[in-house]
Design brief:
- The protein is α+β, with helices and mostly antiparallel strands.
- Strand 3 and strand 4 form a beta hairpin.
- The chain starts with 5 loop residues before the first strand and ends with a strand.
Length: 254
């Protein structure tokens, strides 16, 4: 119920062999009582009986009121084991149950400036100046709770990890250049990554009277990969996006 739902089958051993159960009706009643008495809030589930195999199946839906707690603790399935979720995972479940994300939470920093974001909006959208109304339109600010974490990620100075970029030579023991950008607007980190890409993977060739730009690795692909790494990363984990550049490839870990 805390994740993607699933089916639990009673009357099958760990090797998948059907061993069956006795008194199926009473077993169903016991299971329902256990679920209703021990799990809060009540998950969305249905029970069915297979009389020929003498097994009971519970189909559990992915819940919309997460987290679902068993004796005040939340659990998840980890391969063949059931384990208690850690503090970060529990926070995510709580936010999911409220239909919120970490980026929507109020930022601990409320003294923020946005000169980098403002410059980008002036160039791309033709605004004259960034103000609270524009930040509200971008869902970065509200009158009730102030700036959120998404605003802090885009702010000129913040407490978030950024991007760590390394260009390697023939082996990983040879580092030709390394740049780490953190606690600054993620837009600065994005531009720095793009600049370093252009230094190593773009050059010009002259063919007769013609000059043309050559991309060893397509810039469009690199831009898309970096944008995805930024947008889809988990910002509640204090870890940098890592970009490893080699002569024949680029590896990005978010």
């Amino acid at each position: 119920a805390n994740y993607d739902g699933g089916t639990i089958i009673f009357g099958v051993d760990d090797n998948g062999k059907v061993v069956g159960l006795d008194d199926l009706d009473q077993q169903c009643l016991d299971i329902e009582n256990r679920v209703n008495d021990s799990i809060k809030p009540k998950p969305d589930y249905s029970i069915s009986i297979n009389n020929s195999e003498k097994t009971i199946s519970i189909d559990v839906e992915s819940g919309i009121h997460k987290p679902y707690l068993y004796k005040a603790k939340a659990y998840k399935r980890n391969d063949t084991a059931t384990v208690e979720v850690d503090e970060i995972e529990l926070t995510r479940l709580i936010l999911e149950g409220k239909h919120m994300t970490y980026e929507e939470l109020p930022s601990e920093q409320q003294e923020l400036s946005f000169s980098v974001l403002e410059k980008g909006l002036i160039e791309q959208r033709g605004i004259t100046k960034i103000d609270k109304d524009i930040l509200k339109t971008l869902s970065l600010y509200s009158d009730s709770s102030g700036y959120n974490n998404a605003a802090a990620i885009l702010a000129d100075d913040n407490r978030f990890p950024g991007i760590d970029i390394a260009k390697f030579g023939e082996t990983i023991s040879i580092i030709q250049k390394r740049v780490t950008i953190e606690k600054q607007s993620i837009l600065i980190a994005y531009d720095a990554a793009l600049g370093m890409y252009r230094d190593y993977y773009q050059h010009e060739e002259i063919d007769g009277s013609m000059r043309r730009r050559v991309e060893v690795i397509p810039e469009a692909a690199f831009r898309e990969a970096i944008a995805n790494a930024i947008i889809h990363r988990l910002w509640d984990i204090h870890s940098q996006i890592r970009i490893s550049m080699y002569d024949d490839r680029i590896e990005i870990v978010s």
